[in-house]
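User: Can you fold this complex?
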Amino acid sequence: MEIFALVKQVPDSVSEIRISSDPRRTEEAGIKFVMNPFDEFAVEEAIRIKERFVDARVTALCCGPERAVESIRMALAMGADRGLHAWDPAFQDQDGIATARVLAAALKGRAVDLILAGKHAIDDVNHTVPSALAEFLGLPQVNGVTRLELAADGKSATARRRIEGGEEIVDVLLPAVITCEKGINDPRYPSLPGLMKAKKKELERLTLAQLGLATSDVGLEGSPTRVTRLSPPPPRSQAKIIARPTLEESVAELVRLLQEEAKVL
Amino acid sequence: MPQFKGVDFYGLDGLLSDEERMVRDTVREWVDDRVLPVIGQHYREGTFPSELIPELSRLGAFGSNLRGYGCAGLGSVAYGLLMQELERGDSGLRSFVSVQGALAMYAMDAFGTDAQKERWLPPMARGEKLGCFGLTEPDFGSNPAGLATRARKTSQGYVIQGNKMWITSGSLADVAVVWAKIENDPGVEGASPDAIRGFLVEKGVPGFSAQDIHGKLSLRASVTSELLLDHCEVGEDALLPAARGLKAPLRCLNQARYGIAWGAVGAAMACYEEARQYAASRIQFGRPIGSFQLVQKKLAEMLTEITKAQLLVLRLAQLKDQGQARHPQISMAKMNNVETALGVARTARDILGAAGILDECQCFRHLCNLESVKTYEGTHDIHLLILGEEITGIPAFA
Ligand SMILES: Cc1cc2nc3c(=O)[nH]c(=O)nc-3n(C[C@H](O)[C@H](O)[C@H](O)COP(=O)(O)OP(=O)(O)OC[C@H]3O[C@@H](n4cnc5c(N)ncnc54)[C@H](O)[C@@H]3O)c2cc1C
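Assistant: Here's the predicted assembly.
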């Protein structure tokens, strides 16, 4: 069974994001990059399936710049068997559709039984890549899955997803694309021996030419959408501390402010 | 719990390999997620966080710089960073991991037979078996050469008699590495340091027991015990054959001291970071206290001392990997970095004012812990004397 886990490298959630001199990009200096936390669920789920199916092999698949190799290594250290890294300078600034096209090309001619991904990447929160990949490959997809059970023969799966007011249970034939929601599992920390062995595991690199793509398929040219400008979130206003001599007076002032200034009461 | 971002004023991250950074970041995240939320409570109650043992073993933290037997085989920098992050959590937790790996497992790896290694190292790497290291005695601390525990060779093995004191993880351990003098070894004077040999004494052997030491105001989240060996009979196979004389336990101590030198940096970083954040948010006289020159001086000196300590251990790691780290160099790093950490912890406590005495803050816990770290594995002053001997060629111990 061939399982692929999509892995993207993103700024960690505590890094302070600054817009660079090119207003379509963010500054990379001083940012700590980590594996997209939702992708950790995908990698963990893949490894758990592998632990149940002896013939399963897990490949961490990533399209991203050179530094993203570190996130592939993280997946290898957690227990993935090999890495597939698609990168070419021509991919710069491309959108999710073009990235999905690259990933589809990377999978072309390979046996695929299951593709797992995070439900979105926490940096651009676009929810595009796994769905577009499913489309390019003509595979069914189930998104935001909180529990996944594979049939004993590995030919189908039952997925559970949270919907407004309840849970939806979906049967899907494999191969399929499944995106993982928080709660599906508790991702393991990579082990220290795992980290030491990660460098020795197979890592295949794929460039534009090796993928058989043209420059018009990728980068800005291959992207139906393009970012025109980034702007920082509006500055958060300061907290207001109400400190009147007595509790009664403070509460009265709070109620007045909620009514007159915030207009929420 | 907010993520710890590290203290790296000199860009030392740039000197680390990808692997080393990944090891550091993994352990850092684990400590943030799993240790910091529970350690205050354990410290208050004086309990060891044994629920973390399976997690530490899944991480592969035990004996992680050893090779084979399921150990991670980390280089000296990565191993040091592991110790740093663990001690950023708590010195007691780092002590536990040090004793298991750098003292007990190392002793077996360095001096044991293949059978002893096969039997103990894999389950110890998995954290299924725990070890302790018994060198100190009630009457012999800084002067282990004089130790009074005796082993007598018999036809079936050895009979060990004596007491060991201040033994970390003593009552938790499934196996104790006990140092004793063989009194009837032909050709060796029974009371001399040359008669010192190492024995693996298993829990449950008749005559062997452990009693915890209570009333500690330091390392409260660590178990410290007394080992009693009363006519304790062990087989031939309990002897670590390659450990002969005092230099054998001292070699183990060098391993552990190396880890302590890194660990102390972690404790210092935790305290500095706590003080820095507090100084930025605590308002007095209408301004953050961090805006006062006296507070800035304290923070500046803390950061400077931490940076020096980091440089010391990073270079020491390189020397160690080249097989060139000499024991006086390890002494200097242990002595300096623990003293640095103590100073940083004390100043952090000061900057936090009254809040600094609470156990919901970290600095006072670290400060109390570090008082033990200053004493064990060779006191600060003993390391000064080791350096003094190195400089002058004249031993001044007695
Ligand atoms: C929490 C904790 C855990 C420990 N865990 C272990 C363990 O797992 N295994 C183990 O074997 N031991 C362990 N120890 C023991 C530790 O290594 C000893 O406490 C240490 O070696 C000091 O010995 P001592 O306490 O007997 O002090 P002493 O040797 O009595 O020293 C008292 C003071 O005298 C000074 N002094 C002694 N000799 C000289 C000299 N020649 N010149 C100048 N000053 C001198 C010392 O520096 C110190 O200030 C632990 C100790 C503690 C506190």
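Residues 248-392 of chain B form a domain with the Butyryl-CoA Dehydrogenase, subunit A; domain 3 fold (CATH 1.20.140.10). The two ends of chain B are 49 Å apart (CA to CA).
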